[in-house]
Every structure is written in structure tokens, then in C-alpha cells.
Amino acid sequence: MKIGKNLNSGLLCTNLLLLAAIFMSALSPAVEALTIVSDPGFIPSAKAPLAGVLVVQTDVNSFVSVSVNDGSNTWTHDFYDFTNKHAETLLGFKPNRLNRMTVTVKDQFRNTLTSPIQPAFDSAPLPAFMPPVILVTNNPSMMEPGYTMFRVNNQTNGESSITIVDNFGQVVWFVQSTIAGGGIGTVPTPTDIRQLPDGKLFFPETSRIGFGESDMLGNATLVYNAAPGYPVDGHEDLLTDHGTVLYLSVADENVKNFPTSSTDPKAPIETANVSVGNVVEISTTNSTAFSAWSLIDMLDPTRVDYLCFALEADFGIDPEHANALVDSPSDDSIIVSMRNQDAIVKFTRSGQIKWILGPHENWSAAFQKYLLTPVGTPFTWNYGQHAPVMTPQGTLLFFDDGNCRAEPFETPVPDQDNYSRAAEFSVDETNMTVSQVWEFTGTNSANGYSDRLYCGLVGNASWLPQTGNVLVTYGAVSYENGLHPSAIATNAEMVRIKEVTHDANPTVVFDIELFDPGTTNTNYNGYNTYRSYRIPDLYPHQAIPVQALTVQDASGSPLLQFTADPVRNYVVQSSEDLINWTTIGNPEADDADGDFSFQDDLGDGTITEYYRVITQ
């Protein structure tokens, strides 16, 4: 039998989601068991208290698996980098536990060795500034797999943390006040924190000069500078699929004939200095190359709602308050949420409005043609909304804060009688109509629950891809069923994060509360969070080349074996000339630890055969 010689090389496929490696291997005899030449050790992270680095060295290239016993549970993680000097970022520890680690190494021939040395890590209790995470309910079998990530702010003492919890609400990772270091500084408020495909976190840099990335050890770097003259507003940091970052920037501008009140229809007008928004797009290869769109130039500069003057003492007059962006590359457009207009607006990259989704009151004649007409029932308009996203069905999902549920000069709904919700709308651009296809209001007589939450600021609703559930973030709850979260500290706000099914009668499958319900401190202000996300894993599962493919003679047929991340799928191909490749099948998983095998029963042994494995 003839089989190609050893050759390892990376091959980038035309589909950027795929990364392939060619591995041609001669018949490989078994070798003696590998040796650990440097005992395993654990180095705790100085910035991420529930993370650290596992180090171990072997005489030949190997894979590493670690089993952690924390006194209550045992969990395991397998690493798939093939090297002899391992420095593995280990994640998933819980606070206030003594963790003992059992380290096993494995070579490419599946020889294994478990070290008698068991590194230990005594994780500290959570800092006092962090909120208790109260698990209200969970149903793991109906939940989206993964972890929930959010930035929580302690409004009593000003501290904050990026926090990740498991599906029981247990904290498994956090960094205090900053996910930075190295001069990047504290993450601004509000801010969007996202997980990238490589497992790092992406966020707006605090001094508004650009955007940073942090690894899971808390080490951060500035990766993109803001466009000159357009400092970063921390509301949005959207990495697009076409090599750009979309973000929001705020400036001041004098506007003539501006109303002096949104509650008095007879109030005089004046030339006012107001806060105006810009949508900015920068290149990820050259962050100084950018486009910018002025929102006040597109829209009616003198239209106001009840929120425009709400925080005037702190932030001035704010008639727009853009807080979210959606990239729409299929028609070269951008969608922006304008909280203080009670409007979601779509415009082209040439600066032309396509439609306006929101209540019709007080729009001037020039904008009537852009207003979407509601059709069907039930239908409720959006007010003070946050974080629209496109679903796989092409609908628009967002968090409807519901502020006032009225436009000037209608009677506003009092906060204690109001509610916030997740809402999903379908826009028909041809007929310029909008319909409501789904909502979650927190109350459902069919399912027998009533939890009417009013969250007058922040929040988001995100689509969960595996289950089709929706994760709803009530980021600053001031009323629950008409009552303050605390009868003692009536200014205190509570965070509630719920996962619900996407049904006509949604079921709550996960619900956590961030609050101190037993507080006796009248000055206690509670907590808030801008958005939350369900992340698939603490670790990345990128498509990387298979690094340890062996080929052996098995009863006259080539037997291919390799070890790789079991989250990925793999395809085996063969070739006689290294030019023309034929798919011959998929390997079978030998176990749950990433060992795969494939036997080429059609190999006749008369010609030289080369093999490669494609990672999908």
C-alpha cells in the first residue's frame, strides 16, 4: 500500500467560515508513551479573578485535558492546540471554591498520561460591590445553550463589572470596573460589550477615542481608533460582515425655532443648543477611512417627545438620543434607533430616508410619506425603544421601554401603571406598512403568570439561534407590578434578565434578578445593565486546521485518526496528485473528547493516496 508522505500546510477555503489543512501521512507506527517534562501549574489572572493559565510541558507535541473538582462539582475542558509547551487559558471557575485540577496529556497516537501533580486554585468570594444574582426560575432543557454576559453597574457606589453567569445564575467570570488595563481605562456607561468569534470581548474605549478588545484574562488593547472629529458614544459598537465598524457619535448644534417645552403646547420657541447624533462607519483595516451621516440633517430638527428635556440638567436638550444601529447590507442601508423620537429609522448610505417606524404624531408634512402605517391587531407603538436587531425571518426585534406611551401633548401613562416589553415587528417596504408579529409583556393569563415590569431606560431583546427563544433584558426596573422593587429604598432599580419562548403565549424558561431585596439602606440605589447577551461558550470554537492526523494500515485499508474540537464537523478528502481532491466521507467520533476515525475501505493499495481533513 502506498500513502503520501508527511506534509502539513494550511489551506484557506473560499468560504471564509472554513479553514482546511492538508495532512498526508505515511503509515505511522505506535511510539512509546509521552512524558511530562515540566509539571502542571496554575497561574491565576490578576485582572479576571475567576480565570487563569494552566501550564504544562511534554517531550513531544500533545493535547491537554483538565478536570476540575471544586468540592461540589467536577467539570472538564479539553484543549486542541497541538504543542509541547502549553499555556492554556482556563475558564469556568466559580467564586469561593477550592479547585483541584487533574491534568491529562495525549499524543497524536492517543497515548495518554495523567500527572500525579494536581494544581490547586482557591477562588475568592465575589467582591461586595457585585449584586446578588437571584435565580427566579430556570428550565435548562428549554434554554438556549451557553452563558449570559452583561455589564452590571452598582448605582450606590459607582462600581461595575463585566459578568458572565451560567444557566443557574452562578457567576463563572467577571472583571471589576474595567475589562482593560494597559492604559485602556474604564469602560464607559452605557456601553455595549460583545463576544467575538475568537472568544475576545469587544467594547467602546472609555475616553471615546476608539474601540478595544480584551482577552478572557482581562488584558486589553486598543484596536480601532475613532474617526477624526467623531468621538465614540458608548451606545453601539457594531462590527459588520463587510469589514467595518458602525458606531454612534454625539455633538452639540444650535437649532432655530426649537420648542422650549414638550408638555406645554403654548411654550415659546427659541434657538437652542441641542445634542445631535451622527452615525459613523470606519474601516477595520484603516480606521481613519470613514463615512458619517448626520441624523438631525435627515430628520425634523424641531420634533420633540417627552424624553427630550428629561435629563436637561445633566446632559442638556436631547431631541434624538440615538442608541442602536442595524447594518442592512442587502440594500446598502442602515437602521438607527432614536429613543427620544420614539422612532426606528431606516436610511440608505446615500443619506435618503426609507421609512420611519413609530407613532405618527407631530411629524411635519415633509415626513408623512416615510411613516409606516400599522396594520393588523394587536398592535402597540414603540416608545423610548432600545436595541433593534434583525431576526432570521427578516423581522425587527427590539426592547420597547414604553416611556409615557404617549406623544406630546397627550396624557402620559404614569410609570407605576406602565410596562416594558420585547416586541417584534414586520415591515413591508413595498406597501409602507408595519405589523406586530410577537410581543412579551411579562403578563400572560394563559400561562398563569403576571410580572409587569417597567424599565424606563436601557434594555435589549436578542434572538437566540438554536432554540428560537428570546433573551429579554430589563436593565433598570423601577416598578414591578406597580410597586418599587424596594419599599425602603424607593429610588433603587433592579435588573431582570429573562429568556422566553417565541410563542403566542411565551413561557419563561430563565429568569434572574440582580438586586438586594432585603436592604434596609434608604440610600441604596440598586443596579442597572445596558444589555445582556447569551454567548455560546466561554471558549472560542474557531475553525482551525486539524493538527495531528495519522494514517495506519487496518486490514489492508487506510485508517485515518485525528483529534480535534468535537463542536466542529469534519470532511475527509483524498487525492492522487495533490491537485484534484474528492470527498470520500465524514469521520466518526470515537468518543466525546474529540477523537475521530475514518477508514478508507475503497483504497486499493496500488497507487499513492493523499488525504486531507476539512474543518467546517
Describe this entry's structure for a reader.
The protein is 1% helix and 48% strand. The protein has two helices and 45 strands. Strands 1, 2, 3, 41, 42 and 45 form a six-stranded mixed sheet that branches. Strands 4, 5, 6, 7, 8 and 9 form a six-stranded antiparallel sheet that branches. A hairpin with a 4-residue loop joins β24 (343-348) and β25. The protein starts with a strand and ends with a strand. Residues 1-29 and 179-188 have low confidence and may be disordered.
Query: How can the largest sheet be summarized?
Result: 6 strands, mixed
Low-confidence runs of at least 5 consecutive residues: 1-29, 179-188
> What is the helix tally?
2
Count of distinct strands:
45
Taken from the alpha-carbon principal axes, the silhouette is globular
Which structural category fits the helices and strands? mainly beta
Radius of gyration, whole Å: 28 Å
Could you estimate the helical fraction of the residues in percent?
A: under 10%
How much strand content do the residues show?
over 45%
* End-to-end Cα distance: 30 Å
Q: Can you give the mean pLDDT?
A: 91
SSE topology sketch:
Layout: E1 2-3, E2 7-12, E3 19-24, E4 36-44, E5 51-69, E6 74-91, E7 98-106, E8 112-114, E9 120-122, E10 133-138, E11 147-154, E12 160-165, E13 171-176, E14 194-195, E15 201-204, E16 210-214, E17 220-225, E18 233-239, E19 244-259, E20 269-283, E21 290-294, H1 295-298, H2 312-315, E22 322-328, E23 333-338, E24 343-348, E25 353-357, E26 373-374, E27 386-390, E28 396-400, E29 421-428, E30 433-440, E31 443-444, E32 449-450, E33 453-455, E34 460-463, E35 470-480, E36 494-500, E37 508-514, E38 527-535, E39 550-554, E40 557-563, E41 570-575, E42 582-585, E43 588-589, E44 595-599, E45 608-615
Parallel strand pairs: 1-45, 26-30
Antiparallel strand pairs: 2-3, 3-45, 4-5, 5-6, 5-7, 7-8, 7-9, 10-37, 11-12, 11-38, 12-13, 14-15, 15-16, 16-17, 18-19, 19-20, 20-21, 22-23, 23-24, 24-25, 27-28, 28-29, 29-30, 31-32, 33-35, 34-35, 35-36, 36-37, 39-40, 40-44, 41-42, 41-45, 43-44
